[in-house]
Every structure is written in structure tokens, then in C-alpha cells.
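It is worth pausing here to work through a concrete case rather than discussing structure prediction in the abstract. The textbook approach is simple: state the sequence, then state the predicted structure, then interpret. We follow exactly that order.
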Amino acid sequence: MAGTLTASPLRAIRPWFRRGPLSTLRQEMEDLISGAWGEGEDVWAGQVVPAADVSETDKTIEVKMDLPGIQAADIDVQVNGNLLTVSGERKEEKEEKGKTYHRIERRYGKFSRSTTLPAAVKEDKVDAQYRDGVLTITMEKTDEAKSRKIKVKT
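Step two, the predicted structure:
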């Protein structure tokens, strides 16, 4: 039925919640907070923060970042010490005349994501590959940061 409202699970577990002048404000705050952590979107800056996975082996650190719909030429990768910064821009598609939009949720514009790496890397040994909307950055650890097996003497 159109116009039917259902209580959010958060409200269902709060029997003391009453309808009142602050209920709208409370709902807006809950939506803001859940959007900030629930959808990979930085609500405060108004821009998308790409999702990233960081993993490491004994010799390398690998970062995979989802960047769908972006051209490789529009991606900038920088490593400075143990800080990796990926930035770029998703170009806006031009609207077609005669088309009625019912929903526009895709974001366009500049983005930037900085990640502190778990170990120091060789800045001249960074490889970045972009395929199927996923950016994979492989970085070689410095000799000091590489894991070493220590023989225990008896």
C-alpha cells in the first residue's frame, strides 16, 4: 500500500521512543550516521571514498581498490614513505534530451583515498594494474621491513 511506513529495527527495540517534534531529527541523524559507515561513502565531504583491501606477504604489500567506471588515465597513484594516495576523477555523463530521470544515485567528480601502509615500501618498486574496475597496486617492502626468519641457537 502506498504511503505505508514501517518502523526501523532500531526503533522496534526502543519501547521508550515516542513520536514527537524530535523524531524527525533523530531519524535524520540515524540516517546520516548509518550512511557514513554503511555504504562506503564519506557523507561529510560529499564524495565517494573507494573501498580498499590491504594485504601483505613477506616481501610485498598489495592494495586492491574498487574504481568502477573510471578510465585508467584518470587515476593518480602516489607513494610517499608509508602513505599511499590514490586520487582521480569520474567524468560526468552528459544528459540526453527527452529523457526523464527518476533516480540519480551514481556519483561523479574527484575522489581521493589515502591509506597508511603496514610497512615501509620501495617507492621505485610500485606496480599498478587496472582491470575490470579494480585497481591493484603491488609494492615491494624495503629490506628493513621484510620478514626474516631467525634461527634459534641452542
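Step three, interpretation. The beta strands are 41-42, 47-48, 52-56, 60-66, 75-80, 83-90, 109-116, 121-131, 134-141. The helical segments are 9-12, 23-38.
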